[in-house]
Amino acid sequence: MNIPGGTPSLKLLWLSTEPGIQVRRLDALLACFDLSSLKEELQALESPFQALCCLLIYLFVQVDALCLEDLHAFIAQALCLQEKSTAQLMDLQLDHVDPRAVQLGSLLVRGLTTLVLVNSACGFPWTAADFMPWNLFDGKLFHQKYLQSEKGHAVAVLVEQNRSRLTTFHTLKSIVCKACVKENRPVVSRRHWRAHHSGRWGRQGSSSHRTSSGHSRSGQGQHWRDQGPGSRQHEPDQWRRY
């Protein structure tokens, strides 16, 4: 991996107490996700939004079927969750349950598991609490934001007319979109996508993503992204026939 000072050994990452080891641990984690160029932007974020951005970039690069509306819902629910009480979350009422929203929620939690493992392998450059689902994700709140985003509600509505959240929202969105463009995976609106790829958006289900293989769309990045029986070279697109 392209890491300043070279790729450190696991012994160094796990056991070293030398000055500056946390910097090397973070460099290793970011290199795993090919995010070294975004180090300054990520470090400027508060916890747990560093982890959230890293996770969203990972998912949006890996998963073809994710769109701008999904990104809006993921970010908005994470921002609003920080100030929600348990009682408020329990009292949320949904118009209906959308199967795709349920699947996206499951996908996010699975992505969190991957991020937890990488953070552990790199010697915990980020606090483990940053990756706990209750700090980043609530299923019913996400469902609410997903339905609002699908209906075309403005971002200000998604963040519940809170100016501070709105500012943070645009910061997080900018970082995610910038990283995705670098990987040749621009995040576009579903309506725009439909206009260019009629019919493909009808697909649903977990078969359309490749988080289990860790393969990068651009073919760039680390060897673990490209190899194994789950990678794109070995696994045909199950949805192409549609």
From TrEMBL:
Residues 203-222 have a biased composition (Low complexity). GO terms for cellular component: nucleus. Keywords: Receptor. InterPro entries: Coact_PPARg (IPR026784). Residues 232-242 have a biased composition (Basic and acidic residues). Residues 191-200 have a biased composition (Basic residues). GO terms for biological process: fat cell differentiation; peroxisome proliferator activated receptor signaling pathway. Residues 191-242 are annotated as: Disordered. The keyword Nucleotidyltransferase does not apply. This is Constitutive coactivator of peroxisome proliferator-activated receptor gamma isoform X4. It comes from Camelus ferus.
